[in-house]
Amino acid sequence: MRNNNRKNDEMREVKVTKNYIIHPEGSVLIEFGNTKVICNATIEEKIPRWLKMDNSSKGIHSGWIAAEYSMLPRATNTRVQRESIKGKISGRTMEIQRLIGRSLRAVIDLEKLGDRTIMVDCDVIQADGGTRTASITGAYLAVELAIEKLIDENKLKEIPIKSKVAAISVGKVRNEIILDLDYEEDSAADVDMNIIMTDKGEFVEIQGTGEEATFTQNELLKFIELSKNAFNKLFTL
């Protein structure tokens, strides 16, 4: 039994509050235990200049989805200086932003989206491990709400969503393979892995890292098998 009284295959409680912010086309507050992330999806009736040039050369109409990620200064145990004050985005932030964007573009038909951009902002207001996996799951839900609004307003003739996407963390802590790591578990993990999957059972990405340790092929399969419990629950959202 883990310190938080969860079984190894047990997720933290997940809560979703839709339309958490009134202004964006899609907005959710997603909570994985004590990790809380606000995900807002904004629709812009334009596409990046580089994409417009690329579309023109190919004779197609295609939209774009991108993401930004940030963390409030006291989302963690100690205050972290805002990156806007530092004047540059950290490598970790850039990595997470790109991961969220890739995960969303993998399940949205960008041609059906048309000449528009969906910009997703993921802001961590409280961090206790798994902020990137919560952000991906929440970002998808926010995008789904934004697309529903486009459909309701007759700006889209067909739904461009190919499948749903969610993410969860797994890891090995003190030789135990566990699901949905909180901060204490993540900081002590020998192996830390993030799995992004669609509701069709297809992987978008698997990020696995040994922290001064290694993992076997058999353990990799156990990580993936354990994650299935989480995805079954997440897709019911």
TrEMBL record:
Oligomer status and interactors: Homohexameric ring arranged as a trimer of dimers.
HAMAP family in the cross-refs: RNase_PH (MF_00564)
GO biological process: rRNA 3'-end processing; rRNA catabolic process; tRNA processing
Catalytic activity: tRNA(n+1) + phosphate = tRNA(n) + a ribonucleoside 5'-diphosphate
Role played: Phosphorolytic 3'-5' exoribonuclease that plays an important role in tRNA 3'-end maturation. Removes nucleotide residues following the 3'-CCA terminus of tRNAs; can also add nucleotides to the ends of RNA molecules by using nucleoside diphosphates as substrates, but this may not be physiologically important. Probably plays a role in initiation of 16S rRNA degradation (leading to ribosome degradation) during starvation.
EC class of the enzyme, as a word: transferase
Name of this protein: Ribonuclease PH
EC number: 2.7.7.56
InterPro entries: ExoRNase_PH_dom1 (IPR001247), ExoRNase_PH_dom2 (IPR015847), ExoRNase_PH_dom2_sf (IPR036345), PNPase/RNase_PH_dom_sf (IPR027408), Ribosomal_Su5_D2-typ_SF (IPR020568), RNase_PH (IPR050080), RNase_PH_bac-type (IPR002381), RNase_PH_CS (IPR018336)
GO molecular function: 3'-5'-RNA exonuclease activity; tRNA binding; tRNA nucleotidyltransferase activity
UniProt keyword annotations, A-Z: Nucleotidyltransferase, RNA-binding, rRNA processing, Transferase, tRNA processing, tRNA-binding
Family: Belongs to the RNase PH family.
Ranges for domain Exoribonuclease phosphorolytic: 10-143, 165-229
Gene3D superfamilies: GHMP Kinase, N-terminal domain (3.30.230.70)
Residues reported in the UniProt entry to bind phosphate: 92, 130-132
Matches recorded under NCBIfam families: RNasePH (TIGR01966)
